Amino acid sequence: MGKEHDVQARIDYKKIKAVMGWDIGDGDSVAFGRRMEKDGKLEPLYLHKSRDQQVEKTAVTRTDKGNIIIGEDVARQKEFEINFKRAPGKWNNKSGAMNMEYKQLMFDYIRGVSEAILQNSSNRDGTILKTVTTTDSKGNRQWKKDEVLLVVGCPASVIWRGEEMRRQYEKLISEAVGIRNVVVTEESRAAIFSLFGMKSLRNRIDLQKGVLVIDLGSSTADATYLLPGEKAVNVSWDLGASKIEYAMLDYILHSPKAEKELAKIEKLYNKNKVMIARDYCSHAVFQLRRDKEDFFGGKIGENAARQNIHLSMIDEDGDMILDEDGEPQTISIPYKVTEEMMDYAVNQYEFDVQKNGVTVSQGTWKQNCRRFLDDIRQTMEKEKVSVGTIVVTGGASNMPFTLELCRKKFSDSWVTPSDTPSHSVVKGLVTIAYNEVKAPAVRSRVTEDILRAGKEHIDSMIDKIACRLSEEAYDDAVSALDSMTAVCEDDGFFEKMVDGVWFDSNVGDITDTVQNAIQNSLSRNTMVQIKCSVDEWTKADHSEIIKRVNKASVELYADKAISDMIKIHLSDVNTISKNVSLPDISMPDVAADANFIGAVVGCILSGVLWIILSLIAVAVPMLAGLLIGVGFFASSYLIEKMQKYRKTPVSDGSIAKAVRKMKKEKQSKLGEIKEPLKTALYEAFTRSDAYGPDFEKYYKLLTEITNKAFDRILLETEDGRQ
């Protein structure tokens, strides 16, 4: 989007007709999509082939015939896998239950999600899939691989970050679903986009001041602080809510009933030690996951029903214990989900937690969560960013104590839960996908419009400079001439009687006085006027950026409340412009350019002298010949020829008449002076050997500022897609 990502080289955005976001979580998965049309709405995609359910369990298996089964349906199968989501670096490792590589398990599950979406009639009847699916020769639904963009989330951990890791995941997804255009981005960044749909936040936060999202998922706890256009900070621990399920299992296994059942098996099979085959506990953990969700969702109370959990066993050598039919021997352990069990799961059961592949904590779930929050706070302080708003999302945020821990740790911030924790990531992924397609063309158009406006602002700037300099210099020339009529002998001027008329001045006095007045005026005002006008020019360009970019935000985020949240201000552009600079932009130095000053002096002096000479030539007939055949602005010719007549006397009356005429004809003369002055200014500013290159530099700078401002409304940061 804001940067030249490789994905842009691979995707033909003009062909994209719909976008999808899939949140492939370690515990649950959910998918949404929208058409690229202006009136396209965010719509759920159902992940079961026949049931209209938005959230599906992340579980997978293959039948003997090779058919893929996902979600709740796997519970009816003999073997299946859960908690198999791994970073590419661990794809070659094998799972316990099915002895399959994690890469294959992820491939199968993602393909199963794709097939479920395609097979569900509610999806096919909707407006999204109609435009981007087709039927093959066997009657099976398929994606039009070039007409849909799929964005999938990944944890913010270092082991998932980096272009190579993402490319591997993108390739796996693309091959599994048959869609060419796939983008992988951080789940916690996507969660930030989902904040736009939270009505409770719309009047409470300013995204341009930064926001922190803490995403407590099934396998990882991620935190992303985002200051659009400037900074992104990620913290990721392998602290997932799935640890609660294994803690619940551990609690059951330490119960007297479990110990009694294990002792029976030891005696029955004459074994010294019998243990639970933890690699083959998918059914049990799957069952406990539902129990956990029901408990924290308020569906299980003090009168919880007793249930049975079925577990396979191994001996002390690690060999599976088989029954007389050669099948794994199982035991059935009764249990109830109680407050005591759940207290054990969060306050007593201890486990190790890793960050970026290194163990950083060992303790209970709550202890590890507190340390995770400590790490976030310390990281924010190290990065010197303040956190005003914190949104807690993800499946584990349904456990009430997680929000309490966050509020205690960040008591100086406003901490709020997401109103749709299971959908917070996926909706953001769709927004990212939509912007990935829509934004490049919008960005290009906005940049062109701003550069076009910038050129118009240049013309306006030069016009203002010419007007101000012309009027100041003209007034100063008039004032200088006016003062000559009051000059007396003590001022050093000679007095001479010619034909009974006193002449206190001569042609040289007039020429020098006017020329000096104009030069002094320009020397005094040119730098000020240019700097003032350049400042106005810059402000005009910055205002244009704000107007155009915020208009683009409205175009990208059709919801007005959302576009109001995602907008830039003058302070943002000023900050960007300070951080984005090109060296040696010296346009104000035009004021010191001798060629420019000479041209300006000549323009104004010509207009003034013409008025004066046209009047005093009546009293000094010998000057009349100078005016014949001389162009209006041939000042250099006039000044040169007038050197011969420097001593020629001029009466005060003639000068006074010239002053009155100059005052009377000021506006018309200013119009005559301004046009050649504008030409001189423009030529001075754009001289190829002087300041001309500065304009090109400025346009590049203006483009860069525009791009970075645009990045802000896309929530991009300096290091590209987060």
The percentage helix is 40-55%
How many whole angstroms does the radius of gyration measure?
Answer: 40 Å
Strand fraction band? 15-25%
Mean pLDDT score, rounded?
Answer: 82
What's the shape?
Answer: elongated
Largest β-sheet summary: 6 strands, mixed
What is the number of E strands?
A: 25
Count of helix runs? 22
Low-confidence stretches: 1-9, 488-502, 627-634
| Estimated structural class | alpha+beta
What does this entry look like structurally?
- This protein has 722 residues and is of the alpha+beta class.
- The chain is built from 22 helices and 25 strands.
- Strands 1, 2, 3, 4, 10 and 11 form a six-stranded mixed sheet that branches.
- The longest helix is centred in the middle third of the chain and has 61 residues, at 424-484.
- The relative contact order is 0.10.
- Residues 1-9, 488-502 and 627-634 have low confidence and may be disordered.
